[in-house]
Specification:
The chain is of the alpha+beta class. The chain has a domain of 64 residues. It contains two helices and two strands; from the N terminus they run αββα.
Length: 98
């Protein structure tokens, strides 16, 4: 599948100093504002359940806070956390934490 930028959106330079959540959720990097996003980000094939950008952002932030508290991680930590979990649309926000 080929992805094309939205009309009128063009990025001259692709930044290499941003984190994945900012790239996915921030309009600063060419992302349409969440209020204008009415399409699903993830769709669970067997049930047809859809998860949109707003729910994904909420779940990603909640998971980040939970991991920070549970693992006693300090801000600015640059380590790696691995996940061993079944393939499930409910766990897709893990990939947005990078």
């Amino acid at each position: 599948m080929v992805f094309r930028p939205h009309e009128g959106r063009h990025i001259e330079h692709i930044p290499d100093d941003i984190i994945l959540p900012d790239l996915i959720f921030s309009p600063q990097f060419g992302r349409r504002p969440l209020s204008q996003s009415n399409k699903a980000l993830f769709i669970e094939a067997p049930t047809g359940r859809q998860i949109g950008f707003e729910e994904t952002q909420e779940r990603t932030e909640a998971l980040a806070v939970g991991l920070k508290e549970a693992l006693k991680i300090e801000s600015g930590w640059s380590g790696v956390i691995g996940f061993f979990a079944p393939n499930n649309v409910c766990l897709a926000c893990e990939f947005c934490l990078t």
